Amino acid sequence: MSIYKDKRKATHTPDGYELLTLESGPVEYDFHWHQGAYWSKFLAEMRDNKRFMGVKCPQCDRVFIPPRKVCGRCYKEMNEWVEVSDEGDLQGFTVVRFPYIDPNTGALMEVPYTGIWVDLDGADTRMMHFCNEHDESKLEVGMRMRAVWEDEPRPTSIHAVKYFEKIE
Fold it and tell me: What one-character DSSP code corresponds to residue 157?
């Protein structure tokens, strides 16, 4: 039960996507925050259509994923949505073997896990996520990666993608 009452009048983005709310999950604190028009569309597309959508700058043509309203280089508002591939190049990674409390669940993180940075084809910015490979000797910067989507129902979060895997 939340102590926060939603006082927004709008329930959908201007182009018809539901404005989504993220909830705390099974931890002791309770929170809700609104994802806004850009993140709502981004997460809904992942959940409903198994695809990544980015926004394109009208001046420099850079494509941003995750999306944002304003280009960090040109300071122009971005309203053109483009589909971005779910495959890309690994740009960096780290294998974590020391357990700590997951802020999303309040439970210990399962280790090892591998955090990655991937440049998806069609995007000009990096995305952070997880990889299913935990042996750093089998990972190499520049190798090709592919998103593995969660089964139905997919969560309304970045975890609509289970993890990224190497493309052999």
Answer: S
- Quick: pLDDT tens for 23-81: 656 555 555 677 889 999 999 999 999 999 999 999 999 999 999 999 999 999 999 99
Residue 53's CB: how many other CB atoms inside 10 A?
20
Ramachandran area for residue 73 (φ above 0: left; ψ -120 to 50: alpha; else beta): alpha
- Owner of token pair 């669940």: 105
Q: How far is CA 148 from the centre of its chain?
A: 13
User: Which residues are within 8 A (CB) of 62 and not within 5 positions of it... i.e. 6 or more apart?
Assistant: 56, 71, 73, 124, 125
Length of the chain: 168
Region label for 6, one of left (φ > 0), alpha (ψ between -120 and 50) or beta (otherwise): beta
